[in-house]
């Protein structure tokens, strides 16, 4: 999540243009069999979201940590650690049958990249997107901010492939570059779309910091239907939620929202401090930040609450399945 500092966002003129398209494999693109009866069709459409294996999400985090360690301790925009992170995610998606493309831009004199992955099929006029920023700050490896969101979105995409999910709507996943410089990558992507293409996006779901070590359970309140989807999931677990305010406008949902796209998402907290009322609901330590290592060198794999990461990863899958049927 980017810092909330005046003037931190880059001007649009700082972003230069080039789009690199790389085709993923066409595995999984075959048409699903047509059910013999309408009832069977309804059952197929109501497919339940799978449980997201937390061990798999943590394995992605370990890989991102190793990448940062091998590349100067960070995975920041324009650095070798970011490029290696993108290559890791892309290779997983290509092997799973997604069609991927890398979108290139320039910010602060360095080349940046977005990674977009489309799952074959579904109504191209109704696109459900889930995304997260893949870059860290230069001061640390960025495992909670935002390896956590990036890894959970990646594992949700891989779960789509494993289950050979055939949603009614088209599914698209994204990993954004240069978020920490002012939402540069996601803003570039939104601005690169024509108005007709933007209108096809029925919802964008954003996941930035979902494994904070002193976690809260915060839900974006930007779109009522998306908000209700997440709240219903947590109500089913008996976990109270609060409206997300700390990061409002500070992550990659903002360019989509500003363009009129319905948005939503989850957040487990950054440098705000947990109140006694919040600790009574969620546990944890009163008076301490939700993430004491926010934008610091200690944002490592040791800086993750596995329970929050597990719950939020499952919530991502639940929302992707619910909103794409």
Secondary-structure-derived class: alpha/beta
The overall pLDDT, averaged over residues, is 89
DSSP strand count: 9
Largest sheet geometry? 9 strands, mixed
Dominant shape:
globular
Number of helices: 10
- Beta content: 15-25%
Point out poorly predicted stretches: 5-45
Amino- and carboxy-terminal Cα gap: 30 Å
Radius of gyration: 19 Å
**What is the percent of helical residues?**
25-40%
Biggest β-sheet: strands ordered side by side in the sheet: 1-2-3-5-4-6-9-7-8
Q: What's the SSE pattern?
A: EHHHEEEHEHHEEHEHEHH
Could you characterize what this model shows?
The chain has 325 residues and is of the alpha/beta class. It is built from ten helices and nine strands. It has helices spanning 38-45, 54-70, 80-96, 143-162, 184-192, 195-199, 224-237, 253-258, 276-282, 306-324; strands at residues 17-21, 99-107, 110-118, 123-133, 169-176, 201-207, 218-219, 242-243, 263-267. A nine-stranded mixed beta sheet has the order 1-2-3-5-4-6-9-7-8, sandwiched between helices. A hairpin with a 2-residue loop joins β2 (99-107) and β3. α2 (54-70) crosses α4 (143-162) and α3 packs parallel to α4. The longest helix is centred in the middle third of the chain and has 20 residues, at 143-162.
Write the layout of secondary structure elements.
Elements: E1 17-21, H1 38-45, H2 54-70, H3 80-96, E2 99-107, E3 110-118, E4 123-133, H4 143-162, E5 169-176, H5 184-192, H6 195-199, E6 201-207, E7 218-219, H7 224-237, E8 242-243, H8 253-258, E9 263-267, H9 276-282, H10 306-324
Parallel strand pairs: 4-5, 4-6, 6-9, 7-8
Antiparallel strand pairs: 1-2, 2-3, 3-5, 7-9
Helix pairs in contact: 2-3, 2-4, 3-4, 4-10, 7-10
């Amino acid at each position: 999540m980017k810092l909330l500092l005046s003037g931190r966002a880059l001007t649009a003129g700082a972003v230069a243009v080039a789009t690199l398209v790389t085709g993923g494999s066409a595995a999984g693109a075959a048409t699903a069999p047509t059910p013999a009866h309408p009832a069977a069709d309804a059952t197929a459409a109501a497919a339940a979201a799978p449980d997201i294996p937390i061990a798999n999400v943590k394995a992605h985090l370990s890989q991102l940590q190793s990448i940062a360690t091998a590349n100067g301790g960070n995975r920041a925009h324009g650095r070798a650690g970011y490029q290696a992170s993108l290559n890791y995610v892309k290779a997983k998606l290509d092997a799973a049958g997604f069609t991927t493309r890398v979108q290139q831009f320039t910010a602060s004199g360095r080349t940046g990249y977005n990674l977009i992955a489309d799952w074959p099929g579904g109504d191209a006029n109704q696109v459900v997107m889930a995304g997260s920023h893949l870059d860290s700050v230069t001061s640390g490896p960025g495992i909670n901010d935002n390896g956590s969101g990036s890894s959970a979105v990646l594992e949700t995409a891989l779960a789509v492939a494993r289950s050979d999910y055939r949603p009614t709507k088209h599914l698209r996943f994204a990993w954004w570059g240069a978020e920490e410089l002012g939402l540069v990558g996601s803003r570039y992507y939104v601005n690169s779309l024509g108005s007709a293409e933007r209108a096809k996006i029925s919802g964008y779901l954003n996941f930035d910091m979902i494994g904070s070590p002193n976690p809260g359970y915060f839900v974006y309140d930007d779109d009522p239907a998306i908000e209700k989807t997440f709240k219903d999931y947590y109500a089913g677990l008996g976990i109270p939620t609060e409206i997300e305010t700390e990061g409002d406008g500070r992550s990659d949902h903002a360019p989509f929202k500003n363009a009129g796209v319905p948005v939503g998402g989850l957040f487990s907290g950054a440098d705000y401090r947990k109140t006694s009322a919040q600790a009574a609901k969620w546990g944890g330590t009163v008076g301490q930040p939700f993430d004491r290592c926010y934008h610091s060198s200690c944002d490592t794999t040791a800086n993750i609450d596995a329970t929050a990461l597990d719950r939020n990863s499952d919530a991502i899958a639940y929302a992707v399945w619910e909103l794409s049927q």
